[in-house]
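Students often ask what a holo structure prediction actually looks like on paper. The answer is less mysterious than it sounds. You provide the chain, you provide the ligand, and the output is a string of discrete structure tokens encoding the 3D arrangement of the protein together with calcium ion.
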Amino acid sequence: MEQKAHILIVEDEQKIRTALTDFLEFHGFKVTKAVDGLEAERTVAKRRFDLILLDLMLPKISGEQLCTRWRRDGMQTPIIMLTAKGQQKEKVMGLNLGADDYITKPFSLEELLARIKAVLRRIDPARAVGQTFKFADLDVDIAALKIKRTPSCPSPVPAVPCGQTQVQAGAAEQIEITKREAAIIQYFAANPNRVISREELYKEVWDETMSELGTRTTDMHIAKLRSKIEKNSADPQIIKTVRGAGYKYEPR
Ligand code: CA
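The corresponding structure tokens follow.
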């Protein structure tokens, strides 16, 4: 099942709001709209978005104020600020306030789309929970390029209660990964339960169009990564093969 990224558009000018909505929906995003700062604040309080397009000059509560409040409250949703020409000072402020990017009006929709994709690609699951994140039974530390596998509890009844320090049997296994492998893991982690084709993976991780070389490169990297993280790489359980379609990560 494909998951659409959900974008909140906060823009008081109806023309721009409509144009943005039509364009983003056409490009496969799910869109919610807010016409002023107050509505934006209420909407964000109710649900989570993958990205927010935030106009700087808004009635009721300004984009600047919203951004400051959200960041102060710990909201980590990426924000792209929409600023008008000549708001140089505000632009810089927008970034200091915690916006991830900004774009100056009038902008081309294609440029905005490129920015949105870049910001969405940059978001990694590590961001949400700090330095490390869970990938199946692994703890992935992207910054250190290290993976830790915490040994699972012996079953059915552990002699020592699970979670207690067990020196002999319980030493965590350390696995080192390359940057590329980290990028692959991040992409799977951000897209759980979805079949990802080699084309898609190659495009997202290597940023290139699929070719014969690309197919080999992808397969080689997946094989290498599996040899590191799977208990039995002949029967992968973390990054599964979906015959004729690609790969799938199913968190347990
Ligand atoms: Ca405005």
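Residues 126-130, 164-168 have pLDDT under 50 and may be disordered.
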